[in-house]
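pasting for the record
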Amino acid sequence: MSSLVRTYTGQADRQRTDRNNIQKMSSVIFLLSLFWLYPGGADLWAQTSSGIPERDLRFEVRDLHSPCDIPPYDSRQEWSKRAASLRSQILMSAGLWPLPPRTPLNPQIFGRVDHEDYSVEKVYFESYPGFYVTGNLYRPRGKRGPFPAILTPHGHWRYGRLENSETASVPARAINFARQGAIVFSYDMVGHNDSFQVSHSFRGVQEELWGVSVLGLHLWNSIRSVDFLLSLAEVDKEHLAATGASGGATQTFLLTAVDDRIKVSAPVNMISGQMQGGDVCENAPNLRIDTCNVEIGALMCPRPMLMVSATGDWTTDTPRIEYPSIRHIYELFGEVGRVANNHFSATHNYNLASREAVYTWFARWLLDMDLEDTVQETPYEVDMPSEQMVFFNRPTPEGAKTQQQLVQYLIQSARKQLESLRPSSPAEIDRYRRTFEPSLRYALMAEQPDPAHVLAESKVSTPAKGEIHEDLLLSYRGSRIPAVLWLPDGSRPAPAVLIVHPQGSSILRDTSTNRSGTLVRSLLRDGFAVLAIDVFKTSRIPVDSRTPEEEEFFTTYNRSDDANRIQDILTALSYLGNRGDVTEVTLVGLEKAGLWCLLARGLALGIDGLAADTVQFDANDDRSYLRELSLPLIRRAGDFRTAATLAAPTRLLLHNTGRNFPVDWVQDVYEAVGLQNNFEAHNNKISETELIHWLRLGR
C-alpha cells in the first residue's frame, strides 16, 4: 500500500509544538493582539493626542500563531455586511473570483463493493478539464431515498482518506453515516492518495499573481464535489452536510463560508483563535488579512454547526473563547440553538467520541431525528486499499493534465475570462465594474476610508517669503503617514493636487532652503493646493530591520509593502477630499509611484483626474510584477486594465508607457463612454512643464 498512498509527514510534530506554545500564551497577550485585526485596538497602545499611534503598527507582523477573535458586532445587519465582504475576500484569495466556468464533470463511478447495509464505489470526475477529484462514494442499502448527502474531506492524516487509526478514522465515519441513511463522498486532498496530478506542497509566487494555489484547488474541488452529489438522482438536494478534522475542517469551513448549499456542518478540532493552520493548503494570499478562522467559521451562521474541540490542541480554549464568539453571531439571528460545542479530553483527533458527537448532531439536523441519546458508532470493517483506491490497476484517464499543464490552463483561462469581459459599451463597462471592482479591492486589500475614520495632526509652518505649508501626520487603522500640505495665497477654496513620489515629500523640497521645489511653486502660483505624502517605508518613515516577505505565508496575514502604499494614497485622498478649503482633487504619481497611484485610482472615489508615470512597465509580463511590485492576486484582478477601466470617464494621463502597457485597452474604454478626450497617453516621459499644463487644463 505504501507505493499507492501519498503520505504526509511532519504535521504531528508541528502540532505538538504548536500545542505547547499555545498553552504558554496568557489571556493578556490574547486581548492585546486583537488590535492587529480590528479598528479600535489602538487604544491599547501609546498614542499621540489625536489618537495616532506612536509607531506605525503595520510593522508588527501577524502569522498563523497570532491570537485573534471576532470583534463585537451589534446587529444582524452589521454582521451580514461583514459576511458578504469576507466571502468575497475568500473567493479572491482562492483565485475563484470571478468564479471559473462549471465545465462538465464527466463523472465515472465504478468498482462497487456491496456490504450488508451499505456499498462503496470508486469515483473520479473533472473539477477542471483534465484535473480529477478522486474518492469513494458510500451509499445506504436496504433504505429508500432520497438521501441526505455528506462531504468528508480527510485532513492531514498519514493515509489521507484511507486513515483508519484510533486517533482518526475516515472510513469509520463514512460507513456509519451510510448506515444511518446518508450518501457520503470521501474525497482526496490534492497530492494525496489518488489525487497525484499536483503536489500537495505546490506553491509559486508567479502562480500567486493569478490566484493559483493548493488552497484554491481544494476549495474548487469541494465546490465541484457539491455539484457531483447534486447530480445523483437519489440525493436530497436540500439536505447536504460537510465535516472534517484538522485540514479537513479547514476545507469544511472554507466551503461552507462560500457555498450555502451546505446546510449542516461539523468542523472538528480546527476553528481556533490561537493557530490558523500551518500547511500550504490552508494558506493563500490575503486570506486572513484583518480576519481569522473564528470569523470565517462564523460564516456558517445561521445554518446548524457543531464545533468539536479538544484539550490537547489549539482548540483547547474553544468553550470559553471561540465558541462564545461564534454563538454571539447566532444570537444576532435568534438561532442560538443551531450552534453547539462538544469539548473532549484528547489530543488532535477525529476519534470515536468526536465522531459520535457529529453523528448525533447530523441525526438531528440532517436526518430530522429527535434523539435524546448519543448516536453510537457501530462496529465496522474497512475494505482493502485495492478496493478503495481509484486508480489501483487502472490507468489515469487520457488527457489528465500534469501540474505544469494545469497551472498553464488556469492562467490562460483567467486571461480569456478577462479578455471576454473587455468592455466596448457603457453597459459592458458597468458589467466589468461589477465583476472586477471587488477583485481589485480584495487583491489590494485596500479601500478609500470614510473621512471620519482618518486621523490627522497638523502644525502650521510659515517659511521665508510667506510660503505657507502644514506639516501633517495622517493615520488610518494604525498607520502613520507623514505629509506636507502647501496652500496657495488667499483664503478661498482651491483645487488640490496629491503628489506621490517613491522618495516621499522631501523630493519636492529644496533642501538648501527647506522651501518647496519648482513643481510645487508652479502649482501654488496657479492657485493649487498641494499635498505630498510619505507612503509606507519611504522617506521619514523608519525602515523595518526585518524582512517579513521572507516569512512563510506572510501575505496570508499581512499586506505587502506595495499594498500598504496604495492604502496610504487612498487614505490621503480621503483626507484631502474632506477638507472644506478644497474644491476638487487630482492625483499625480511620479516615477514608480505612478503605478501605485493608478492602482489606487481604481478604488478612489470623488477624484477628478490622475496623471501617472508608468515607468515603461511591461504589464503583460509576470516577471515585471515579480520584480517591481509585491502584489499577489493582482493579475487575477485584471491588474492595470481594471484600475484604468474603473477610473473612466474621469481625466487620465498615462506617460512613459513604453510599448507594453495596455494603452489600447484604456483607449477602447474611453471611446466606449464617448469621452476619449479625457484620456491621454505618451510613450515617453513628459516634462514637468507638460504635467503642469495638463493640470491647468483640468481646472
